[in-house]
DNA sequence: CGGGGCTTTGAGTAAACTCAAATAGCGTGG
DNA sequence: CCACGCTATTTGAGTTTACTCAAAGCCCCG
């Protein structure tokens, strides 16, 4: 199921393969905070390569001693946990710019798995030298902490939903979240974004069964709140969704990128 | 409902009030990683006072612009979110040594509340100077990140439980977690620890109703897995609990303290 | 044209919920 | 020392939301 590592580009002259950080397509989005030239050069030095995987590939397996840190460059992924009998809970979705593997790197084992939702490319940092960030670039270390806290706040929200919202409310809250995150990355325009999830992914993220998720999605669609077909989400009534989810409208902050 | 700040001790000679970091009772536990003298002196310098609150007091209110960072010195607390109609979800419990307010400090608002479960004392850091940690003490900055990630992993687990475990399994998993965390702090001995939660707290943490939590607790008690009376948890069958929760047995790592 | 994966529908079931009221504990004041 | 009030726990009864099992329909791709 897991795909092999594919070098992202030529490694001529000892330069790391793949995208060059200074010309990283993500950096051009105003969604991300700018870094100094020095910082970018340093990050570039930390980068040892790229990892490309097909959809459904394992980025980190549960229980792995995978002590690698990545940044997701393109594609979507998700973090999850499973029980021995196969029940799976998706903890949160990962979009380009998100850090992958911080927890696994900090503790000795991966307490959760990470799987590619689409074909993905990851920027791969030096196993041994990552923590130089802390010694040499306090601002970047701060950014690592920020990104970690940001991810936690996503998980907080999901837990809130799963614990205390009805099926319909959960779906509304999740779609709003993903719509907002994807929009920031210009994953579409005019109220429509690409959502590469199956209904089962949604179910597994929301603690619901696939069947019930399907019925609830249909009911919401019928209420004219959104359309979700062929991997495209078109939000028809943002306020209706927000009201249903009773979600606060928090304008997206610009975020760091490492 | 919220109690006023009570100075933790005399502030004679410009020395910060309250416990002196070097003689912090938590540091003597082998559960916590040792720090260098320099680090302790630095932390001491960052400490501007102590905050003492009664049980049920608000440490951080949802939506606050409370940009303070604390360490919980004594007592228990919890992070939570609520919906306008009163539904509440507890995200995780906080025990002595846990950092409080990292997220609220990092973002502009508190996206969750923090409430005291028992009478608590918090160690209170300088609003403005906390981030000096990153510039001056990389190791401590790393520790902040570690503690953040640690908390996230608690939330991950709770989300996993709430999303995919049955009521009985959730309770087993939660009691195991709290038993393990409290044991590390010597909150009791011989299989029994003090658990200052009501059944409603357990319900709110697990996404259950109070009534159902009560019935499920009784059923588990009847199966001889544990006793939970008068705020004391006595675990009678750890393996039984673990099997029920299908929880991995992860030996507690020693953790940093700031 | 034939899978394989995803979505949809039907029918019966079960886990957990709500409402309501009784009981138990505990600290305070008469 | 007991009554009172407050909070927390317990019990009963009926309901609902979401689940399971099973099968059919879709749709894309080879």
SSE inventory with pairings:
2 copies of one chain form a homodimer.
Chain A: H1 37-46, E1 47-53, E2 58-60, E3 70-74, E4 77-82, E5 88-94, E6 99-100, H2 102-106, E7 113-116, E8 120-125, H3 132-136, H4 138-164, H5 167-184, E9 192-194, H6 199-206, H7 210-222, E10 226-229, E11 232-235, H8 238-245
Antiparallel strand pairs in A: 1-8, 2-7, 3-6, 3-8, 4-5, 4-7, 9-11, 10-11
Chain B binds a DNA duplex (30 and 30 nucleotides) through helix 7.
Descriptive key words:
alpha+beta; 8 helices; 258 residues; DNA-binding; homodimer
Number of strands of chain A: 11
Distance between the termini of chain A: 28 Å
Instruction: Please name the two chains that share the biggest interface, counting residues whose Cβ lies under 8 Å from a Cβ on the partner chain.
Output: A-B, 48 and 48 residues
- Rounded to an integer in angstroms, the radius of gyration calculated over CA atoms of chain A is 19 Å
SS class of chain A: alpha+beta
Largest sheet of chain A: 4 strands, antiparallel
Strand content of chain A: 15-25%
Helix content of chain A: 25-40%
Provide mean pLDDT of chain A, rounded.
92
């Amino acid at each position: 199921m897991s795909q092999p590592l594919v070098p992202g580009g030529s490694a001529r002259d000892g330069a790391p393969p793949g995208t060059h950080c200074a010309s990283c397509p993500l950096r051009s989005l105003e969604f991300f905070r700018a870094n100094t030239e020095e910082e970018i050069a340093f990050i570039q030095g930390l980068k040892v390569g790229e990892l490309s995987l097909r959809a459904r590939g394992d980025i980190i397996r549960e229980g792995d001693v995978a002590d690698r840190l990545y940044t997701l460059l393109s594609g979507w992924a998700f973090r999850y946990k499973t029980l021995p009998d196969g029940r799976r809970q998706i903890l949160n979705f990962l979009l380009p710019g998100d850090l992958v593997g911080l927890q696994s790197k900090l503790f000795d084992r991966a307490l959760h798995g990470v799987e590619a939702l689409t074909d993905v490319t990851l920027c791969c940092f030096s196993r041994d030298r990552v923590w130089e960030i802390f010694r040499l670039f306090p601002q970047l270390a701060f950014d690592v902490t920020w990104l970690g806290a940001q991810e936690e706040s996503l998980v907080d929200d999901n837990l809130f939903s799963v614990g205390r919202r009805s099926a319909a409310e959960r779906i509304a809250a999740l779609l709003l979240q993903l719509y907002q995150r994807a929009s920031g990355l210009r994953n579409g325009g005019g109220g429509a974004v690409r959502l590469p999830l199956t209904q089962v992914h949604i179910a597994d993220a929301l603690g619901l069964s696939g069947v019930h998720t399907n019925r609830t999605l249909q009911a919401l669609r019928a209420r004219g709140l959104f359309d979700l077909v062929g991997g495209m989400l078109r939000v028809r009534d943002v306020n209706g969704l927000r009201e249903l989810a009773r979600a606060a409208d928090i304008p997206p902050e610009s975020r760091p990128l490492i």
